[in-house]
Amino acid sequence: MRQIRKSRGQGRASAARYLLAWALGAVAVFAWAGEPGLVVGSKRFTESYILAEIVAQTARAHVPAEHRQGLGNTAVVFEALKAGAIDVYPEYLGTLDAEILKNPQPTDLAAMREQLRPLGLGVAVPLGFSNGYALAMRGDEARRLGIVKIGDLKDHPSLEAGLSHEFLGRADGWPGLAKRYDLPQQARGIDHGIAYQALQSGRIALTDIYTTDAKIAELKLAVLDDHLGFFPRYDAVLLYRLDVEQRFPAAWRAMAALEGRIGVDAMIAMNGKAELQGRPFAEIARDFLAAGGPSATAVAPAATRSGFVERLFADDLGRLARQHLVLVVVAVGVAALAGIPLGAAAAALPRLEQPVMAVVGLLQTVPSLALFAVLIPLMGRIGTLPALVALSLYALLPIVRNTTTGLCQVPQGLREAGTALGLSAGQRWRAIDLPLAAPVILAGVKTAAVITVGTATIAAFIGAGGFGERIVTGLALNDHEALLSGALPAAVLALLTQAVFEGCQWLMQRRRLSLPPRPAGWRAAARPG
User: Fold this and answer.
1) Is the pLDDT of residue 347 over 70?
2) Same domain, 324 and 387
3) What is the pLDDT of residues 133-143, one digit of tens each?
4) What is the pLDDT of residue 305?
5) How many CB atoms lie within 10 A of CB 129?
6) Is 43 within the bounds of a domain?
7) In angstroms, rounded to a whole number, what is the distance separating the alpha carbons of residues 155 and 144?
8) Among the four residues 88, 145, 155, 288, which has the most C-beta atoms within 10 Å?
9) Domain end: 223, 257, 277, which one?
């Protein structure tokens, strides 16, 4: 009986420590995720990062402003704007007209404003340049094949087209373009950040580009003439919530003063500073604002990039580590609080086991980016909270499965012994079942934690921070060092997480070996019958 009481006390103490750790983690999340003032969003490509930084820094002189960078494609960022998770982001009129408002024919700015008004949104502040879609090939290949305009592609059906995933699905993208020009090519999806490298190496022959990309001149690409005028104008503007003008009047006046200040050559030069020199987006924006609008200048060579070690241990390392750790700790804690009771129920009621396992298994099959995109309109926000919900759901499977397995492995004789000694079902579960199943349950939590360290990098796509922020930036710039500077700390954190749980399991094993011998009569009581 002394053994049972001791085990019960240890179980309660462990549970108390666990709940305290989870509570502290939850407090840290809410402290970390405090609501900022103005929130500026951006899509996941270079120019959007830079423009959003210019807007955020302009507003920051008047109100607290935050840049939620790299939130994904148009659909994700627009949903975040509608839900009020962000207040403003840079957009393009052609995208707004065809992709967001789904207008079959081009409309004017006044018509777009009327369509946006019922949604509580507005469009204003033409920034001074147009950045359109185009198709491009290597210059030498285009000259060899005699391809000058898009219609010439009909004579070369074997050319392999690698197009960005968004362009493949847009109304003003590949489907409409291929139909207008009757193009025979079968396009495959490729991330825009690596498309230039694939084009240069010859793995693809054709890709979609933005006309202000700095790499067009650097790689000597041939931009094909849209002689049938398929692509609309893509003038850069600000898409915003109408209440911004009332909530942040001084900041809005400052942002409105950006109208017409960014010429196309200046935008190309700023894109080049990011893509060819590897300069931070915030620094590029700061230089632009300090100069009052830079003139177009030649882009310096890429040799000015920071070294890998310098980028790995940059000033943001501590912030990203803290954000990533909070995501993992709280998500796994929530998953354990939900998963252990679910696993216990499945073990106690065998008819529940298959349905429970089917549900948590199904959650693992939902693509993470799709789940994040669904959670934004459902929860009305981006950032920490939807990321935690998604990560907690993904962490359930190993915890539930191991809890069920561990509890099913407890010898029936020990359960009967506890009942014979007068323990209630709850007392027996806490004193016998849970301590004996604890190593297997802890192994499930360990697996969930290690997996969550990796999965949490994807949370950067909805502005939740962490090491994924560097990875997302690296993808946008096709910068392998930026990718590695985010992936390497995440891998180290996964190893440290593994080591912490291994240490906990070792301590549990030592504690079990050091317990005093069981009291006389235990074996007789534990013997069935």
Assistant:
1) yes
2) yes
3) 999 999 999 99
4) 55
5) 20
6) yes
7) 13
8) 88
9) 223
Q: What is the mean pLDDT of residues 150-158?
A: 93
pLDDT at 165: 84
Helix (H, G, I), strand (E, B) or coil at 470: helix
271 closest CA partner among 47, 492, 438, 118: 47
Q: Note whether 166 and 235 are within 8 A (CB).
A: no
* Residue 336 neighbours by CB under 8 Å, 6+ apart: 18, 22, 399, 445, 448
- Tell me, what's the pLDDT at 287? 93
Are 236 and 51 in contact by the 8 Å Cβ rule? The answer is yes
Q: How crowded is residue 270: how many other Cβ atoms within 10 Å of its Cβ?
A: 28
Q: Are residues 213 and 153 in the same domain?
A: yes
Q: What is the pTM of this model?
A: 0.71
Half-sphere CA count of 250, side-chain side, radius 13 A: 7
Q: In whole angstroms, what is the distance from residue 313 CA to residue 211 CA?
A: 34
Tokens coding 270: 């700023």
Q: What is the pLDDT of residues 470-506, one digit of tens each?
A: 888 777 776 778 888 889 999 999 999 999 988 887 8
Q: How far apart are CA 103 and CA 99, in angstroms?
A: 8
Domain total of the chain: 3
Whether 252 shows a pLDDT value over 90: the answer reads yes
Gap between the Cα atoms of 88 and 237, Å rounded: 10
Report the C-alpha gap between 199 and 219 in whole angstroms: 9
Please state, in angstroms and rounded to a whole number, the distance separating the CA atoms of residues 161 and 501: 47
DSSP string, 207-238: EEEETT-THHHHTTEEEPB-TT--S---BEEE
68: phi then psi, degrees, rounded to nearest 5: -90, 100
State the virtual CA torsion across 65, 283, 320, 476 in degrees, nearest 10. 100
What is the average pLDDT value for the chain, to the nearest integer?
83
Tell how strand 133-138 and strand 221-223 pair up: antiparallel
- Domain residue limits at 169: 133-223
For residues 243 and 214, what is the distance between their CA atoms, to the nearest angstrom?
36
The closest of 373, 59, 55, 87 to 236, measured between CA atoms, is 55
